[in-house]
Amino acid sequence: MNDTATPPIRSKDAAAPAAAKKEEGSFLWFLIKLVIVVLVFRTFVFSTFSIPSESMLPRLMVGDYLFTAKWPYGYSRASLPFDIGPDTGRILGSTPERGDIVVFKHPLDRADYIKRVVGLPGDTVQMVAGVLHIDGQPIGRQRIGDFVAPITPYNACRVERFRAKAPDGTPVCSYPQFRETLPGGRSYTVVDFGLMPQDTTQAVIVPEGSLFLMGDNRDNSQDSRFPAAPGGGIGLVPVENVVGRASFIAFSTDGTSSWINPVSWFTAARWHRIGNEL
């Protein structure tokens, strides 16, 4: 008689729960790693920002979604989650350059804003009859072709005199456009509705640690020309309030999409703007 015991045969049904448990554990660990990667990415590399107003026309439009690079200027409470950074100053900090488009925290209400840097510490900044002056000298300013964009929910063209029609009959908004060139050679385009009260200001010397910021839509921007007020002007903005430098447009939509019509998600996208560097 053979007394050797026959080893038990493990059925596939018995092995299945163990495999399922291992698979669940692997998926949970994957989710944990994914969350860590996303947190690190958003904390130290890029954050996202959506354009809420027309203050940065023509470069940026309502419905643009941006990636903002955090590392170029270092890190502060404004750029780190939950205000975990230093009380003052920046870690590995550097000052933005003239012409940079920056996302920053409003000095009073800490809301996120986006504007262009036109004045650095030590600069004397003044608007004279709609022309930006730095250190007493007018910057280069050249009239170019109008900025023309279709009228959509995100581009309402609220100023009636700028409404027009494209050759195919499409309603458009046609804004007077200028090319400005800052000291150092950085150039960009702005739109200007004509002379307004804010087109002439007192000369302001930008103090150390602060920036003079303006919107490219010169007559529809609450910026450093106006005293800081919650939901309004921003005054001179501390460098430590800067979140990061606007980098590129990740997505753009004209506002005509509908959640119940998936086709409209594609037709509303402004494909020609996606991927544009700033």
TrEMBL record:
GO terms for cellular component: membrane. GO terms for molecular function: serine-type endopeptidase activity; signal peptidase activity. Its EC number is 3.4.21.89. It is found in: Membrane. Gene3D superfamilies: Umud Fragment, subunit A (2.10.109.10). It comes from the Bacteria. Residues 28-250 form the Peptidase S26 domain. Belongs to the peptidase S26 family. PANTHER family: CHLOROPLAST PROCESSING PEPTIDASE, SIGNAL PEPTIDASE I. This is Signal peptidase I. It comes from Croceibacterium soli.
